[in-house]
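Sequence only, no structure available. Ideas?
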Amino acid sequence: MSENILGTAVSRWYNTDKEKVEECGIVFTKELYEQNRINNLWIVTDFNSISPTWTLIVSAQLNITDNVSIVTNFESNNVSKVYISDGNTSIKCINI
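Reply:
I predicted one. Tokens follow.
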């Protein structure tokens, strides 16, 4: 199984385990899993650690196979949105 990165961004999100807002990396990927094309949205935190934390937020068939543009918007502790566009399909909006 091979996972390819289609786009990255930096955002803020509310970490419920630490009860604070922190900076995070956004990584959007594609992979072939059991003959299905799957897209994954990862959050990367703990940048100062020797091994950053990767958290899978979404794994779904979003039909995105090309490089993407990612825009993020932190609105509140409960709403931090990620907008993803590949220029071919409709814009995807995911709340992290």
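The radius of gyration is 14 Å.
Hope that gets you unstuck.
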